[in-house]
Predict the structure of Transcobalamin 1.
Amino acid sequence: MRQSYQLPLLGLLLFSLVPSQLCKTCAISEENYFRLAPLLRAMDKSKYTRGTDAANVLLSQRLVGIADPVIKQHLLQQVKYNMQRNVSNLTSGQLALIVMALGACHTQDEKVIYDYHLIGQLENKFRAEIENMGAHDGNPLTNYYQLSLNLLALCLFNGSYSIPEVTELFSPENKNYYLSGQFSVDTGAMAVLALTCVKRRLMNGQIKADEKAVERISNHTESLVKKILSEKKENGLIGNVFSTGDAMQALFVSSDYYQESQWNCQQTLDTVLEEISQGAFSIPIAAAQILPAVMGKTYLDVNSCVSSAGNFNISNPVPITVSPPDSPSNISVNYSVRINETYFTNVTVPKGSVFLDVMEKAQKENKTIFGFTMEESEWGPYITSVQGLRANSNDRTYWQLLSGGKPLSQGAGNYIVHEGENLQVRWSKY
Ligand code: CBY
């Protein structure tokens, strides 16, 4: 009895001793800015996309203070076009990114948020995600990465959410942090950013709740940070190359929860710079998700932007033209579809083809067995069905892409296939 009475007090005492809102970052030095050119080139391509990756690019650019009016105008048009068409077409995470992009750095574009009542719509989408969890065994409409983006945007732009509900929802034991049995670093990182925002508002007295709430949110954050750090690889990447940017942001804002010796930020940054030079971030969204971290920024900085445009003298990148190979040769790969049985084929495609080209070639040969459908996503085509069997987030089913039995870390539109490779799409649960 005595102990349970003392615990909250002890928590409060410990809390007041911990230096809060600490934020440790490591960032690229100015003389190395030229190494970011491939990212700027990649983000430039979002001028030609119709998707919501434009929002991610705009958010990222504003955070690092690149004021390219042409790109900005194009992105803004895209976002407005999207809004006017039908907001209900957007998923919760897409709308959250649009809100953050428009609201970042308090420009006149912020007005669009209020003209279109985007905060109210975001609150509705958050509610719908939670209701779906109630009806479908704890599975949201989309996923926890998007729920985290949703909470983050609501927190940053004064939307409402229930603190007890949020602490319950984002408990580190929740299965939604895991995809196919593996802790999703991207998801955990986004949750840390959202929870940190909520905690800061609680502590500043901007929102009210009992002190237990702060303590629970701190515990959740600590546990998620531990899981993120345990996915650190020898070369410094956290999860894989595409999750490292989000993970860095999460670690920047949560340095209260780990020792300096547990993370060598400079090593991670160096490896990321190396990956940039090798062309790892060639699609706009991948570039947009790594850029803030490399510049030492996080999504929590949207309300306190500083202009670094003056120093950033590589804003008009010239694309490097790669001449196509003289004689395009063909390669042959094995391709299979696995449901309960496995259906095999062998197809010939031009060298440099991607996974999707293989799937299309197989489909042409046998529509019944290799027929498939896809949808455009920010990361490129997402395979929605094969043989008419459709992925469904209510039962966590999806079509997994593999090579040599190992899951790929790129989508069908980006993974370049090699001679003799054993490619597979597999009916799976995440
Ligand atoms: N973003 C989202 O909603 C996606 C969140 C995310 C965690 C995302 C990775 C991280 C990010 N930064 O955006 C994510 N993937 C999720 C949640 C999912 C699941 C989607 C479930 C749902 N109902 O929303 C799911 C089904 C488990 C999934 N990803 C599948 C896949 C495979 C797609 C195959 C297909 N059918 O087309 C694939 C290719 C893995 C595989 N081997 O099958 C895959 N994802 C990959 C590789 C990735 C990475 C993409 C990297 C790249 N260069 O293309 C990823 C960044 C991402 C997008 N997935 Co998912 C993760 C990584 O490698 N770090 C919010 C929205 C607004 O943009």
Remarks:
- The domain at 330-429 is CATH 2.170.130.30 (Ferric Hydroxamate Uptake Protein; Chain A, domain 1).
- The chain has two domains: 3-316, 330-429.
